[in-house]
Specification:
214 residues, alpha/beta, 6-stranded parallel beta sheet, 6 strands
């Protein structure tokens, strides 16, 4: 079996490659961004693409969008997505494509090596491997307030955004780095299902959601 791996975290990327190598699974290419993923699957035509949801430049949903693009470039390409939490909007699009060879696991499952490798083989064969938490959240989709998905800190950041504070000002208020604020905002955009568009436009839409106007 040959795979293309897309993961921007160097240590996790190396760890997954080692797990695969121990099972005689070849990593044809290991990349750290969505554009290179699409190029790699087009070039290597792998048996499977393993894709992290969050990659540069914004660390929000690039991986999922790249996975969808990769399946368009190589129809029928089996894709196993790894994420820290459920990205509902793109998860639905990926899982509802009508074809097999799709997996969506939370990253904590990688710690269970046997379960992870079973998912790799199953998806590569054209089956599915969907994390129970993904199923639970998608079943509840549409029956809850989207703000419920936010952590307390993310809700706090969104509240400060609604006050009109800049990222720098939010960082000062919460005594965290600007990078941490940007990560929280990326989480907010993803959890609210705000697809890629102009940064300010997504910011306004997030605030409007917070204010209950959309």
């Amino acid at each position: 079996m040959r795979v293309v791996l897309a993961e921007d975290a160097v240590l996790l990327r190396a760890g997954v490659q080692r797990l695969l190598a121990d099972e005689d699974i070849e990593t044809a290419a290991a990349v750290d961004n969505g554009d290179d993923l699409v190029k790699a699957v087009t070039e290597h035509k792998p048996d499977l693409a393993i894709v992290d949801v969050r990659m540069p430049p914004t660390f929000t949903d690039e991986g999922l969008r790249a996975a969808l693009a990769a399946r368009q470039a190589v129809p029928g390409l089996p894709v196993l997505v790894l994420s820290q939490y459920v990205e509902e909007s793109y998860a639905v699009e990926l899982l509802s494509g009508g074809a097999g060879g799709v997996g969506y696991l939370l990253k904590e499952r990688v710690a269970d090596v046997a379960e992870f490798l079973d998912a790799v083989r199953r998806v590569a064969r054209g089956g599915t491997a969907i994390d129970p938490e993904v199923i639970a959240q998608l079943m509840a989709r549409g029956r809850r307030n989207p703000l419920d998905a936010l952590t307390p800190r993310e809700s706090e950041v969104l509240g400060l955004m609604a006050q009109g504070l800049s990222n720098t000002a939010i960082g000062g208020k919460l005594v965290v780095s600007q990078g941490a604020v940007e990560k929280h905002i990326g989480n907010i955009f993803a959890k609210l299902g705000l697809e890629a568009s102009a940064e300010e436009h997504r910011r306004v839409r997030a605030v409007l959601t917070y204010l209950g106007r959309v």
